Prior knowledge:
By secondary structure, the protein is mainly α.
Amino acid sequence: MTDVAWPAEETPRVLGxxxxxxxxxxxxxxxxxxxxxxxxxxxxxxxxxxxxxxxxAEERTAGPLGTSTAATSAVGLxxxxxxxxxxxxxxPLTALSCDNLTDNGRVLERLxxxxxxxxxxxxxxxxxxxxxATSVTFPSSMVDRIVPATTPAQRDEVETLxxxxxxxxxxAEPFLQWVVEDxxxxxxxxxxxxxxxxxxxxxPYERAKLRLLNGAHSYLAYAGSLAGHATLAxxxxxxxxxxxxxxxxxxxxxxxxxxxxxxxAVYAEQLxxxxxxxxxxxxxxxxxxxxxxxxxxxxxxxxxxxxxxGTVPPGVVGALAAWAAYVVAETRAGRSVDDPRADELRALVxxxxxxxxxxxxxxxxPGLLPELPGGAGDRDRVVDAVVEAAGxxxxxxxx
Length: 399
């Protein structure tokens, strides 16, 4: 039986589970913004400060669980749990990120070490750092399955079918792919019996999924919302938007190494078929959330790779234009964009002389685009192309 606890209210119970020697693997599925990262990718210390202070206090008490201070962040809670595990005997543990982050295991590992360094500076954190280095691994993983937000209507339908109300209901498409780096600190679950793929290198699978699936998903969300489509299924059924998604995928395929046994062109087309499944009910507004966190990993790599090859990728330009036009349109309509940097986005739009200037300012947002091979010159080329594609702020249907 799985023991479930609500992290904030039941922090001691979660810490106890993380410290228990019978726990071998902890997984994280907390979305991109759940990692409390700054625009440069480093740990946002202000966002996790309460947990860092609690960690320092718990290390001073030297008890297995320490204080009962409620956790305020996922990364902070994990680090406190790891420290509790070391104090309780230090059995090996695997911390497995399952979120849509490039090299997600290494990202999580870096944030954990940054948290330890901030909470326990100098020699105070030496024992914990040494234990982390020898007893904890952070494998990378890639999960591919469309799982939209559950609706009240779906809960009602399942209640009718089962005769019981399930408030934790999760609805998903039939397709499922899970690729996991085979780097476990202790016992490894036999997930391959359920279809998981273990590999020494997740990167080719991850890049293909992020750039082809997630990249097209985000584009269709922004362009679809601009075109008045409520769902991804409606958006991909729009010929102009489907053409835009294929243009973005063509850019991505030009940068990718195909994983073993995968035909990227076939995979890309199958993705559009999956998006067209109306049963998922995936809304454009839901997928349009957190663009400043998603764009760097979904479009940024393709952009940088093709600029290095001397090409300004039209599909990525069209996608950036759709995002910027979406932010402009939402802001002009008085609606808040659901994004960790919403205040910055709103300020850029409201402070711009016109929509074209707003689009340019949005694309220049620090941290949105990766470091480009041609530096400021490449950035200027991209900004000019996006402004042109966005039609000085008018919604675009395709690149």
